[in-house]
């Protein structure tokens, strides 16, 4: 009886292997797929290309502006000068060499208005780009005139200054002697110390 039972069990196993298929197992429940993308995440914006080449405007901003020399136009406006009466008379002889504002301040023999005018000339660049480096005064006249020489980095020569239109101006400026008639025509008093001019016949003489 034990043998029969064993065979019966064996046959049952063979049948199970050959023809009997076990019922398929119920599928195991799976977790829903999870979206691993971070909500709201976006790609980083492309890096902007920055041009670091200096431009004319940036160079101008970084480079300090050159300091310009003072000009006659940039100096303080001079006060009007009253025209003195034309009384004639002798010149006052001088021997003054002015190379700076300090020299002009010390030149107390000069009228105050003339000193103020010379501060706009000595060491100052004029409208032509020339700088007066030295003024030598040989004489002044009470009628509102001064005579001397002027040297600049451009040229030099003899000068007669005078008061016209309520201010000091150049009356004549020359390198070679000019006709005496030209000096007289401009109302320059005779007898200016060291001033030479040409007579009608072309000879040189004291004015």
How far apart the termini lie comes to: 174 Å
Unreliably modeled segments: 1-45, 50-75
Percent range of helical residues: 10-25%
Q: What is the general shape?
A: globular
Alpha plus pi helix count:
5
SSE pattern: HHEHHEEEEHEE
Spatial strand arrangement across the major sheet: 1-2-3-4-5
Instruction: Give the tally of β-strands.
Output: 7
DSSP strand content? 15-25%
What is the residue-averaged pLDDT? 76
Largest sheet data = 5 strands, antiparallel
Structural account:
The protein has 207 residues and is an alpha+beta fold. It is 21% helix and 23% strand. It has five helices and seven strands. It has helices at 2-18, 56-62, 101-106, 112-119, 180-185, and strands spanning 92-98, 132-141, 145-152, 156-164, 167-174, 196-198, 204-206. The strands form two sheets. The protein has a five-stranded antiparallel sheet with strand order 1-2-3-4-5. A two-stranded antiparallel sheet has the order 6-7. A hairpin with a 5-residue loop joins strand 6 (196-198) and strand 7.
What layout of secondary structure does this protein have?
Layout (H helix, E strand, L loop, with lengths): L1 H17 L37 H7 L29 E7 L2 H6 L5 H8 L12 E10 L3 E8 L3 E9 L2 E8 L5 H6 L10 E3 L5 E3 L1
């Amino acid at each position: 009886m034990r043998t029969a039972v064993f065979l019966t069990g064996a046959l049952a196993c063979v049948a199970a292997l050959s023809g009997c298929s076990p019922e398929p197992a119920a599928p195991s429940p799976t977790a829903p797929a999870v979206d691993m993308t971070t909500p709201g995440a976006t790609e980083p914006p492309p890096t902007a290309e920055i041009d670091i080449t200096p431009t004319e405007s940036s160079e101008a901003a970084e480079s300090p502006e050159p300091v310009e020399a003072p000009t006659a136009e940039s100096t303080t406006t001079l006060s009007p000068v009253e025209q003195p009466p034309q009384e004639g008379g002798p010149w006052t002889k001088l021997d003054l060499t002015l190379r700076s504002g300090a020299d002009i301040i010390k030149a107390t023999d000069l009228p105050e208005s003339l000193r103020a005018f010379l501060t706009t000339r000595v060491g100052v660049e004029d409208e032509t780009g020339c700088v007066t480096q030295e003024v030598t005064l040989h004489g002044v006249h009470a009628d509102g005139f001064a005579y001397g020489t002027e040297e600049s980095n451009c040229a030099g020569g003899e000068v007669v200054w005078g008061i016209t239109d309520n201010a000091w101006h150049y009356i004549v400026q020359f390198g070679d002697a000019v006709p005496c008639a030209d000096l007289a025509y401009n109302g320059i008093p005779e007898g200016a110390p060291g001033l030479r001019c040409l007579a009608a016949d072309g000879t040189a003489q004291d004015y």
